[in-house]
Amino acid sequence: MPPGWHLTTATSGIMWRAADSAAGIYEVSSKLHLFPGGGDHAEAFGLFIGGSGLTGASPRYTYFLIRGDGTFKVKAMNGTRTRDITPGWTASTAIVKAKADGPVANVVTVAVGKDKVSFRVNGTEVWSGPAAGLDMAGVAGLRVNHNLSLHVETLDLKRS
Q1: Fewer CB atoms < 10 Å away: N or C end of the chain?
Q2: Model-level pTM?
Q3: Is 99 within a domain?
Q4: pLDDT band at 39 (very low <50, low <70, confident <90, very high)
């Protein structure tokens, strides 16, 4: 399904290429098309950064998710434990909400600076915070929850 590839998930997971690793100042972004189906689209999808130990029992990464209901969340994964970075699911008008009659597209971006990390949807910063205490250096990729139909048009990593 050019350009990109289509995912239909039964379970959640992460997808990455080992070559997509970065440290320091960088930006990762993906244009993601959410297709109708899978109930009310309350399941989330987005990006992860700072990935390490991804094939083992103790993966670590920071992830940024959006949902078809127009909300987002930033979390951290450490082994089997997750930690909310942002409180709950937060609504943002920057997120194009799901619709029943066709796909919607959102560009999700994480920009890592020297001391700050910025989480953006369609060019609008929806949350930012200090990079300290978050996994920033490592592999970047996609995180997709279950029962979703997504088309991944792009997945780009720009190192500074």
Answers
A1: N
A2: 0.95
A3: yes
A4: low
